Amino acid sequence: MSLSRRRLLIWLCLLLVPVSLGALRGSAQQNGAQVENDVSYGEAGGQKLLLDVYRPGGEAKTRPAVILVHGGGWSGGDKRDFEPYGRALARQGYVAFSVNYRLATKEGNKYPAQIDDVQRAVRWIRAHADTYGVDPNHIGALGASAGGHLVALLGTRDTRDNSDPALAKYSSRVQCVVDMFGPTDFTVQGPLSEQAMAILYNFIGKTPQEAPAVYREASPITYVDKNSAPFAIFHGTADPLVPIGQSQRLYDALQKAGVESSFTKFEGEGHGFQRPETNRQFALEALTFFNRHLKP
Q1: CA distance 286 to 113
Q2: Alpha-carbon torsion angle 89, 91, 96, 102, nearest 10
Q3: Cβ-proximal residues to 35 (8 Å cutoff; 6+ apart), any chain
Q4: What is the CATH number of domain 5-294?
Q5: Domains of the chain: which residue ranges?
Q6: What string of pLDDT tens digits covers the 296 residues of the chain?
Q7: Is 57 within 8 Å of 63 (Cβ atoms)?
């Protein structure tokens, strides 16, 4: 459930397409991304939680932020997978935070470890907004596959674990969400491949029959209401791992609740986007969406 680094590099190039060549050269010279790797945003289960920060260069000022959440079936992937996204967003005037979270294994780190960590990251960003020049009221989220699932929860669900007094006053909600082919409703039985079912079992630790309430709790669609964040959803019609119906269900629920949302279907694309024209359209739509909701 992860994107290849090659596809991410394509996205990096395409994200900068809307900028004129002259402006792009100036941006690269004056506002190249400042990168800070392996910043600790907490500890959980005896594991240090780390993120990478990508900041615009040039004159310091308060900027909107985007949290980037990698895929990998909740059991793989790494924050460095989204380095091209982070650098590209920094060049567009955002402070980007690419986060690691606890990965599910056979032995542990089952749900809700992942959403607890990602929600902690958003709250940590707000707590350290002055340090990183972030506008705490303008934070967006982007995630792919399993990361799409987690950012969808950021846009729909309130803080699950509020046990850390240092973060108690900070919200984990984001102001907008870019969801790339993330699963959204685990209560729907089929059509799922054996691979998808195995990934889900490793993530939850039980079958849907054994723990229906947990599957419902882990589903972003459970929490959709009029207060949900605006969504931009992207999915390939030929996705063999996460059926496009998962995104359709989320979009329909958002529309019914009166939440601003869009759903872009890429004909013939699978789990991840291969064609340059698809990546170009995605990059333009995602950046336009972030600019509309995060740049006052």
Answers
A1: 28
A2: 70
A3: 52, 53, 54, 55, 86, 87
A4: 3.40.50.1820
A5: 5-294
A6: 444 444 444 444 444 433 322 222 223 323 479 999 999 999 999 999 999 999 998 877 899 999 999 999 999 999 999 999 999 999 999 999 999 999 999 999 999 999 999 999 999 999 999 999 999 999 999 999 999 999 999 999 999 999 999 999 999 999 999 999 999 999 987 667 889 999 999 999 999 999 999 999 999 999 999 999 999 999 999 999 999 999 999 999 999 999 999 999 999 999 999 999 999 999 999 999 999 999 97
A7: no
**E-strand stretches of 100-210:** 134-144, 176-180
**The tokens of 286 are what?**
């995602």
Q: For residue 82, which phi and psi values (nearest 5 degrees)?
A: -100, 15
Strand runs labelled E in the chain: 34-44, 47-55, 63-69, 95-99, 134-144, 176-180, 231-236, 261-266
User: Terminal CA-to-CA distance of the chain, rounded, Å?
Assistant: 34
Structure token pair of residue 238: 């030929």
Return d(Cα 177, Cα 195) in angstroms, integer.
27
Total-model pTM: 0.90
Cβ atoms within 10 Å of 131's Cβ, excluding its own? 10
Sorted by sequence, the CB contacts under 8 Å of residue 229 that are 6+ apart come out as 154, 155, 156, 173, 174, 175, 176, 177, 259
